[in-house]
Amino acid sequence: AQTAPFLSSPYYGEKAINCFFDHEYPNYGQDNSIVIYTGERRSNANRDICTLHYSCYAGHPAYDYDLEYEPVLAAASGTVEKAEWNSWAYRTGPNSGLGLYIRLGHGNGYQTYYGHLSALLVQEGQAVVKGQMIGVSGNTGNSSGAHLHFEVRHNGTRTDPYGWSGGYTDPWQAASGEASIFLWSDGQWAGYPLAAPTPYGSAVVVDDNPNNTGSFKKGRSWGSPVECPPGSCPYWWRVTGIGYGSDMYYTYVNGYTADYWAKWQPSLSQAGLYEVQVYIACNHATTWFAQYHIYSNGSPYDTYARVDQLGLCNQWISLGYYYFSGGSNHYVRTSDATTESYSTGRKVGVDAVRFRRVNVGPFEVEDYRERIGRTYQGLYMNWEFRNWSGKPGWRGSGAMQALPKNPHKNINTGYTTASPELRYRTVFPASGTYYVWVRAYGENGKEDSVHAGYDGYGPSSADRISGCGWNSPGWKWCNSTMDGPRATIYVGAGLHTFNLWMRENGFRADQVLLTQDPSYTPP
Ligand SMILES: [Ca+2]
Ligand SMILES: [Ca+2]
Ligand SMILES: [Ca+2]
Ligand SMILES: [Ca+2]
Ligand SMILES: [Zn+2]
């Protein structure tokens, strides 16, 4: 049987393809022409098929997407088989290959490669789930500008995940025996990009100078341990005039033992989901493999980040998304244990770390991925697009209403298979409990409730969401349920289907927001 499509987008948003898979032949050979999956042949000199031109060339065995230094997502669930430098001997040039890269095995004969990265957020042997952030794109290895190199192999042979739709025999299939199959299941096509988490509120920055919300400390953990400030630490050098806030420190790399360390410990006023970012200066930050461990309530997350400091220059780099419960027992640590030898003379730069609060959404209810009408007690109902002039205040292009609204129905049990349903492809950046907010218009008590869930599952914690303003009609955010508690779902990290099911017909839904911050009320 042919493999069912199983890949989702390896990035957030919509990105141009800089360079296609060359079906004749994907071996980096320069025969001066490119045959793309449609069967269209272009000479290598005519690079019109590329939005940007620097990496479009014959022999390319993969896709180059137009990313800068941005999150890279696992295209399918699987195991991390490689997460390292392609070569420690060659940082750039023809022998440097994919530079800092990740290879995932998906257990079905397929592997995916993510090349030229600037940061790795996963370790070899670790299980990952579809949509999970695994790294940050960049410009390492044999690359002449930041992008994501995304390559797929089937039983070890390179293959084109866009398949082959040419009107003649696929030359790569003829040469290799490998028939390229269209492998994208969702998120990649037809205007359904995966939405990145949305920052909100003000970020908390912990810098190496004392103007912080929180504290920065560094020290030595061998011999007679020291922690500073107060005082200055041996083997930590301060540089001014560069870096965030015009100052930074560095020490030298030294193998596998953390002898010199630095720690950024914010004071977080709110519990919630945070993106942790590290600022890398242009100088005195020259390690290829700075290691950052993230701690929540004093315990490290079981994965850590590795960052190519040398390739970065005065920019924030994401270390991923983490839940913190608020307060000041959460921190980021790095050290001289980069695995590189002291004799390399490389330096670990330490500067500012930023904690940015993020939510999932708001997203527009009318931008659903699938819509399913159902018959209940003899009445066929479905979610219909509306953009009433008589009910102004909806956002986006309109809203969705469960119709017809008469005769009145409400569905309290069995709704996952009995009620009209809307489905969204939603990336949850981290595991945990998300408060479910629905912006809706309840005109009266018979059309003001809805159920929510994920992956077709309707947890009792998110059923019977109600109270969306029926006693003072208008568009309102609601998060309460008829059962009392606020509506929540507990969901693992990665790409999931978010579901809305009609409870009462006539219900009008405009936007959805999912947050791990219990104090957040959407505007
Ligand atoms: Ca600084
Ligand atoms: Ca009601
Ligand atoms: Ca309930
Ligand atoms: Ca809307
Ligand atoms: Zn490439």
Shape: flat
Bound molecules: calcium ion, zinc ion
Count helical runs. 2
Structural class comes to mainly beta
Number of domains: 3
By CATH, the topology of the largest domain is Glucose Permease (Domain IIA)
Characterise the protein shown here.
The protein is mostly beta strands and 523 residues long. It has three domains: 7-186, Glucose Permease (Domain IIA) (Distorted Sandwich), CATH 2.70.70.10; 204-359, Jelly Rolls; 365-515, Galactose-binding domain-like (Jelly Rolls). The protein has two helices and 42 strands. It has a 17-stranded antiparallel sheet that branches. Strands 15, 16, 22, 26, 29, 31, 32, 33, 35, 38, 40 and 42 form a twelve-stranded antiparallel sheet that branches. It has a four-stranded antiparallel sheet with strand order 30-34-41-36, with no helix packed on it. A hairpin with a 2-residue loop joins strand 31 and strand 32 (379-386). The two termini are 50 Å apart. It binds calcium ion (4 copies) and zinc ion.
